[in-house]
Each structure stands twice: as C-alpha cells, then as structure tokens.
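Each field is set out as follows.
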Amino acid sequence: MFMSKKRFVSLVLILSLVIMSGQVSMAMAKDKTDGKSDKKTVVYTAIGDAIALGVGGEYNSVSDPLKGYDDYLVKNLKDKYPQDGIILHNVASRLDTSKDLLKKLMSDKTVIKAVEDADIITVSIGANNLILPVWPIFLDIFAGNISQEAGIAQILGKTKEFQKGADQFKKDWPKIIERLHPKKS
C-alpha cells in the first residue's frame, strides 16, 4: 500500500468536506435574560450528520466518551461568557444526507423545536451525500478484500453517484437554509 488506511480515510473525508462544504454557523440574536440579572441563557443547536454528532471526535474516557466540535464550542462559550448559561441540543444523526436533514427540518418535532429555540445553530451536512455510495468500497479496503489501488479505481468509477449526491445537496441546501432562517413577512 502506498499510504496508511487512516491517512487514506482522512484524505477522502477532507476531500468530501472541501467539495461539499456544507458547514454554516449562524447566530440569531435572542435576548433571554431572566429579568432579574444580567445572566443570559444561550441555546446552541447542532444539526446534521456524523461530524455534527461528534463522530471522529476525541475520546477522553468511558464516563466522558466523545468530544465533537459542538462540545468545544460550548466549552469556549462557557469560558468566554462564564456569567451566562449555555444549553446544547445536538439533534444530529450519523448517516444523514442533506435530504434526510431537510425532511427532519420539515417534520421532526424534536429537530424543529431545537432549531426554533436556538440562539446559535451549526450545520454539518453533505458529506454523506458523497460518502454513502462508496462506503462499501471503503469497507472492502479496510477488510483487506481489495487493494487500496483497486478501491481507488472503483471509487473513481463512481462519478455518476458523486454527481447525484452533489446535485441532491445543491437542491436541498437552499431549502435547509430557508428552514433555519425563514424570511420575515
């Protein structure tokens, strides 16, 4: 093999993220003071796929198993604004595509409520639009069923599937943004 499996996966994931770059952060100003003090409660909602969920994050211990970017954002907010309360709602799902997220934003009451209550929303979506069609090839490479070179050749042969995933993302993304930030009438 010409590169390690870990490096190969990292490069493919980075490429997928660069291509789909479905990351957005938006802060929606809502003053939620308790009326008695200057303390505010900031509600942060993370939505999207495995990256938003924290998969691939840092494992600390059994009692504190996973740290994704949402955990780090909460920590930074608490460090910067110790007087305020920070509430995290992570309603991400590991295998969601942009189409799955859009459907949840239209019909899943938990996701809709988390978004409605949010002061800060981060979205990570789109990588699965590209990765899921070729995931069985990755599994074959990891299992040693095929060589890395043969796997790359198979992945490169999936351009129609990649394009279909990219087209689906392109169609869904404006609708996702509209659901997150509806226009005022």
Remarks:
- The chain is about 50% helix and 15% strand.
- The two ends are 58 Å apart (CA to CA).
- The CA atoms of residues 30 and 119 lie 6 Å apart.
